Structure formats: structure tokens, C-alpha cells
Amino acid sequence: MHFTDTVYRNPYWPTFPLLQITQGCTHNSCKFCTMYRDVPFRLQPTEWIEEDLRELAMLSPDAKTIQLLSANPLCMTYDKLAPILEMINRYLPKMEYIYAAMRVTDIKNKTVSELKGLRELGLREISLGVESGDDRTLERINKGYRAADITEQCRKLEAAGIDYWMTFLNGAGGKELSHDHAVNSAKVFSSLNPMVVGTGGLTLFEGTPLLTQARRGEFEPLSEAEMLAELKTFVENLTCDCYFITHHTSGAQLTGPDFLERKPRIIASLEYEIKHGDMERLAYVRSRKTSL
Ligand code: SF4
Q1: Which residue's CA is the closest to the ligand 1 atom numbered 5?
Q2: Which of 285, 147, 152, 170 lies closest to 228 in space, CA to CA?
């Protein structure tokens, strides 16, 4: 298999098979991200994709699901993407469910009818690292789109019948924008119908522009208690039913389906954690993280 980058796979998806169709990230300039910093974006050569599919067809001829790599493999236009999905179906004829991460901006170059075409070829589920629905926060972390783009593009996915995940990056607005980041993100997410809402806490990694800004005093990161308080505000304001996932170091018990039914329990458990949690342990766990 031709895996050229570090493989980041969705931990909620089957571990196998994975197929790389691009290298790196087209944007590669979110201020908190180290994932593909040293990897120039490139389309994976078609012959490599075909060789990998031949190998997968031998290893797993009955595969029904597949995750595409790398950061945003669906950045391509329909005309380039459709032949790749057709090739997947040719080598793995039982394929039903193709999954990949995508940037909000990657949806822009596709019409609803093209998205429907991709769905017919098996593209069923997409993960969007949205991070925030607050314009000032999006600008601060340099996501490269605005809140209005998120709603406009996600509605196209809904019209095409493609399920999607949205992520909220807890702490991304720092102290200054924390409240607006939580409330405006919940507002944007709630105006849509994501299948999954995931939340992860901001960690400032060595080599990122956001860490440099924090050292210069231009970005004030949240404490662990403030992160939990911001997450609670986000949850309080979130009104779309979904599978809710949190990677907050304290929050494994908060993950699960039927968000609206569980919302009061999630809030109560966040309140308990804010009052009684071991913040030093949480900060220690975060300090041990080496990558997103
Ligand atoms: S967070 Fe995602 S979109 Fe942003 S630079 Fe990293 S991989 Fe690219």
C-alpha cells in the first residue's frame, strides 16, 4: 500500500481498509494544526491508487466500507473524484459505504447533483473539521471560511443525502472569544442536521503559529476549568439531535447517541467536573499529547 503521510484514521470507523488518494492538506495553514505541516499537497498518482485497490481486492474482496485518506481527499472536482470512486467499486464490488474527511471549502466546487452522483457511487459519510461557527474565531485560527459558508455547504450535503460529522474545537477562541465561540458554534451546528457532533480540546503544539501567538501574549489559552465551562455553554446551546462525541480528557462517559435526551445528564456531569474535577491531572494529560 502507498501510505506516504502519517495515517490519521477515524477511531469510530473500522480500521480496515484505508485507501490514500491525496497527500497532505490543500489548506495546511490552520494555526493550531501540525498534522501535515511538512507534507506538500499532491494528488496520489492514479497508478498507485489502482495498485492499492488491487491489493485490497485480494486481501478483502468483500469489503463494504472504506475510509479515504489523506487530510481532505474530497477536495477534487467531481470529474476527478467520480472515476476514483468508480475504480473502488470495480475492485471492491460489494462496497456500500465510502467515508472521508473534508474541508467545508471542498464542497464548494461541487453542485448538489454532483454530490448526489458521488453518493450513488458510495460516498455516504463525511467528517468536517468545522471547529467553530464564530467568524472571529474562524479568522483567528485561519480556517479559511466563514460561518455562512458552513451552513450553505452543509445544506448541499443534506440535499444530496450525504451524512456528515461536525467538530467543535473547544478553546479555539481563547479567553477573549470563548463565549461567542461556544454560543455561535452551537447556533450554526443547531441550524443543521449533523449525524455526529464531535468536540475536542485545543492543545497548543510546538511549532504552531497559535503557540507562538500565545507566547507573545496575543492569544490567551483557556485553563482546563475554562475549557469545561466553554464546553458546557456549547452543549447548553446545542439543539440538534445527534450522536455526541467528546474527546475532552474528562469526558468519556459523555459520548453516545440521542444527544437531546442525554443533554441534561451531559450538562450535570460537566458541572460536576468543573466543581470537583482534578484540573492538574487534566492539564497533565493534555501536556502529554503530541498531535491532534
Ligand atoms: S486542521 Fe485540517 S484543514 Fe486545517 S491544516 Fe490541519 S489538516 Fe488541514
Answers
A1: 28
A2: 170
Give dist(CA 139, CA 116) in Å, integer: 31
Mean pLDDT across the chain: 94
Name which residue sits closest to atom 6 of ligand 1, judged by CA: 33
**DSSP-derived secondary structure letter, 32:** T
pLDDT tens-digit profile of 39-75?
Answer: 999 999 999 999 999 999 999 999 999 999 999 999 9
Distance from the alpha carbon of residue 133 to the mean position of ligand 1, in angstroms: 16
Task: Domains for the chain: give ranges and CATH numbers.
Answer: 18-287 (3.80.30.20)
Q: How far apart are CA 39 and CA 127, in angstroms?
A: 21
- The CB density around residue 194, as the number of other CB atoms within 10 Å, is 23
Burial class of residue 165 in the structure, from the number of CB atoms within 10 Å of its CB (0-12 exposed, 13-18 middle, 19+ buried): buried
pLDDT bucket at 199, cuts 50 / 70 / 90 = very high
> What's the 94 CA to ligand 1 centre distance in angstroms?
32
User: How many Å lie between the centroid of ligand 1 and the Cα of residue 261?
Assistant: 32
Which atom number of ligand 1 is nearest to the Cα of residue 143? Answer: 4
65: left (phi over 0), alpha (psi -120 to 50) or beta: beta
The CA 168 to ligand 1 mean position distance, Å, reads: 14
Q: Measured from the CA of 29, which atom of ligand 1 is nearest?
A: 5
